[in-house]
Task: inverse folding
């Protein structure tokens, strides 16, 4: 029982630690944390060293695939496929056994090329090579791609890789808008079947062997359609995909829309077409547009491994499966009245003031003022 004098009795001393000892304890704790940090950094350095070794090994492996060497100027020694290459698609004959995927430091005679291509070990590689115009799909570029595929068919390749040059920020800017112009009142479709762009899409989709797209950088407009027509896609984190006709007032053909439905969920296709906003590489991988998402330094090695795997399988089986999948996923047939209705809507949009406004705004680098007229 407490008594009143208890407060008068001497109180026991408070349990206070020596400040110096407390400081020493804190320093010891920080030293321990620093030791753990050093261990983590050492582990990260070892991992980076291993990744560097892997990257160097990949480069060596690529050099065994495709070295883009000087074009042979002696046509008497050229194969029929090589002679078929035009100024827009240079065939770069492999020099000895060295081949690589990336665009080389070309001499002046290659500076106007739109497309580079080569073949080795049953693999065809086509490289969009117009970085000054952001690899826009001009008629020259598209004709060059068609020429490359004609040569791949003649040489009976078992897989094709299509890509831009290494390190680009824009894989392709899509259509060359300067080639959109038609005569006023013209009833022609914006992209009829005989148009080089449509021909490239048809060629890729109907090509007898798989076409693999290697995507680094942003992909815009019609280039998204081209990418979606590839059988397989591998991309890097810098890849993005935007379908932009709604920004420019240009109607999109029904077959083109169907290409996206074959590789993306319906609501994502709607979002891309309605908003004209890009989806990221992570989103593209999540929704299935990209088969694989890899770091930029592993893109070539990953695509090469995939192409070699395809090329090593039974060619006739691969061809028939691609043909079967193409038929099974083709756009379903329309009733005649439904098809005519859609065509009428497209013609209306193509003749509209909004189409002219969209193109003018794009060329003038200003926001469009759409009126729905």
Result:
């Amino acid at each position: 029982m407490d008594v009143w004098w208890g407060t008068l009795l001497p109180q026991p001393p408070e349990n206070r630690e020596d400040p110096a000892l407390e400081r020493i304890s804190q320093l010891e704790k920080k030293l321990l944390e620093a030791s753990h940090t050093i261990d983590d950094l050492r582990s990260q350095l070892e991992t980076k060293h291993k990744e560097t070794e892997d990257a160097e090994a990949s480069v060596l492996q690529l050099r065994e695939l495709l070295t883009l060497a000087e074009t042979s100027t002696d046509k008497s020694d050229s194969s029929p496929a090589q002679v078929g290459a035009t100024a827009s698609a240079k065939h770069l004959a492999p020099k000895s056994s060295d081949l690589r995927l990336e665009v080389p430091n070309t001499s002046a005679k290659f500076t106007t090329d739109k497309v580079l291509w080569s073949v080795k070990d049953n693999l065809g590689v086509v490289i969009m090579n117009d970085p000054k115009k952001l690899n826009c799909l001009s008629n020259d570029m598209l004709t060059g791609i068609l020429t490359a595929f004609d040569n791949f068919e003649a040489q009976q390749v078992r897989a094709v890789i299509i890509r831009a040059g290494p390190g680009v920020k824009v894989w392709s800017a899509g259509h060359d808008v300067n080639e959109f112009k038609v005569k006023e009142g013209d009833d022609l479709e914006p992209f009829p079947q005989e148009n080089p762009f449509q021909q490239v899409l048809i060629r890729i989709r109907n090509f007898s062997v798989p076409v693999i797209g290697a995507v680094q950088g942003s992909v815009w407009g019609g280039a998204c359609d081209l990418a979606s027509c590839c059988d397989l896609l591998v991309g890097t984190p810098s890849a993005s995909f935007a379908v932009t006709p709604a920004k420019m007032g240009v109607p999109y053909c029904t077959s083109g829309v169907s290409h996206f439905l074959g590789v993306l969920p319906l609501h994502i296709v709607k979002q891309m077409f309605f908003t004209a906003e890009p989806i990221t590489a992570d989103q593209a991988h999540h929704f299935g547009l990209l088969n694989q998402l890899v770091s930029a330094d592993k893109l070539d090695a990953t695509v090469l491994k995939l192409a070699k795997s395809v090329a090593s399988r039974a060619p006739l089986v691969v061809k028939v499966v691609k043909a079967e999948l193409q038929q099974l996923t083709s756009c379903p047939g329309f009733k005649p009245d439904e098809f005519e209705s859609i065509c009428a809507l497209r013609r209306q949009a193509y003749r509209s003031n909004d189409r002219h406004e969209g193109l003018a705004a794009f060329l003038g680098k200003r926001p469009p003022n759409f009126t729905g007229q």
Remarks:
- The radius of gyration is 30 Å.
- Residues 19-63 form the longest helix (45 residues).
